[in-house]
Design brief:
The protein has ten helices and five strands. By secondary structure, the protein is of the alpha+beta class. It binds zinc ion (ZN).
Length: about 220
């Protein structure tokens, strides 16, 4: 009681805030009770997620800004490398992938961020799927593969994207998943060079794929 008496009297505003603290007040109080920066950062992130999930801040723009900060494919979509772009669709961008031993290999990346394909709004998911099929058909027309492996994994980057690997009939491993070869390449530079090499320049591959895309009616 003695200590209280020695303090400056609290203003009416301060007393009101102490009686009914706002959410920001609570964050500040919690932040002060944790001394290390890691704990403070964690608390701010938890409260930010809570606020975003319950407020008008959970707009697509705000969610996009958060994803852009964290997600490699969101950053790529925001600033697509011109020498990789095969085609820009309304809901996705098709990029020519690095492993051109599988001639025509493309990665089709959704413009919308989500951790899982089923998290996408239905209309966007369907349009994204159709755009992937357009690219798959263009690969078939341009390069006549024996089969096209269509894969969506997302173990490394959790953002909706399709890998389209054309498999040729003369590939001795054409019954095996491409990832076995890519795993070898990760440990062997010669294998990396072999799988990235192509009989055609990349610009030529992109030109052939673009020529095989359906013309706008
Ligand atoms: Zn993303």
């Amino acid at each position: 009681m003695k200590e209280m008496r020695n303090r400056e009297p609290r203003s009416e505003w301060t007393q009101r805030r102490l009686r009914s603290p706002t959410l920001l007040d609570r964050i500040f109080i919690l932040r002060c009770s944790f001394s290390d920066l890691g704990s403070q950062f964690l608390i701010v992130r938890i409260f930010s997620s809570f606020i975003l999930s319950r407020s008008s801040f959970s707009s697509p723009d705000m969610m996009f800004a958060m994803a852009l900060e964290d997600c490699l494919l969101c950053r790529k979509i925001a600033s697509p490398p011109a020498n990789e772009v095969v085609w820009e669709f309304p809901h996705s961008i098709a990029f020519l992938g690095p492993w051109q031993h599988y001639r025509g290999y493309c990665v089709v990346v959704c413009r919308t961020h989500a951790a899982e394909m089923h998290h996408l709004p239905e209309a966007i998911r369907q349009a994204f799927f159709e755009e992937m099929c357009v690219v798959s058909r263009a690969i078939e027309t341009a390069f006549c593969p024996r089969k096209i492996n269509v894969e969506s994994l997302g173990n490394q980057v959790q953002h909706p994207h399709w890998h389209l690997f054309p498999r040729s009939a003369d590939d001795p491993e054409n019954l095996k998943a491409v990832w076995l070869a890519l795993d070898r390449a990760e440990k062997d530079e010669d294998e990396t060079r072999r799988l990235q090499a192509s009989q055609l320049p990349r610009e030529e591959i992109i030109a052939r794929l673009r020529a095989a895309l359906p013309r706008p009616s």
